[in-house]
Design brief:
There is one protein chain. The protein is mainly alpha-helical. The chain is rod-shaped, with a radius of gyration of 48 Å. The termini are far apart.
Length: about 110
Amino acid sequence: QATDDFPREIAERHQKLRRADALEQLIQVKDSMLWSVINETKLRDQQQQESAEQLKQAHAYAQSIQSGSHEELQHWSQLTESYHHKVTSLQGELNAALHEVATLKAHNKQLQ
């Protein structure tokens, strides 16, 4: 009977080998998929870090521009205030000079 079992054992072993080959192929597919996921995750993480750095740089640049704009607006505000005072002062001087001219004209008329 031992010789009768030999063909059956050979068939079982062939079947086990085919199953092992199929499982090995499935493991290779699984490994390939896992490596793809790992690599995609690494790439996504790297892209997120790069995006975060670009966002940080853009924010710093925007703050720099905002600060510069604020300083320029303050400068123009001070300049406007200074010119306003000068114009007001000159207007006062002009009014005083016009009053003096009118007074001198009236005095000249009296002298004629």
